[in-house]
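WARN retry 2 of 3 for item q-0093 after timeout on previous attempt; input resubmitted unchanged.
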Amino acid sequence: QVQFVESGGGLVQAGGSLTLSCVGPRSSFGFKAMAWYRQAPGKQRELVAAISAGYFTNYLDSVKGRFTISRDNAKRTVYLQMNSLKPEDTAVYYCNFRPYSDYWGPGTQVTVSS
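OK item q-0093 returned
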């Protein structure tokens, strides 16, 4: 069964930092591109950052220079280091493969106060 379990969200003031973690499924984790997505209230889910099996990364323009995605295949974990957070980063953050599968985890809430 494909499962993603996200953690690390919380409430932080603008300018603060958070690190999100996501444990992925056992099968083929190390061979697949992983990504973080987010969904703010009333908005569509969007791709925030992705990392390939070969560790190439790409980012949503609005988070470039502030967010860093990384992965540890031995732990089946993908991370999202978020610095200089802004109120517009407030959303539920999810991880999944890229392209995404139909199996979404519960996500982790990130709330940035102004």
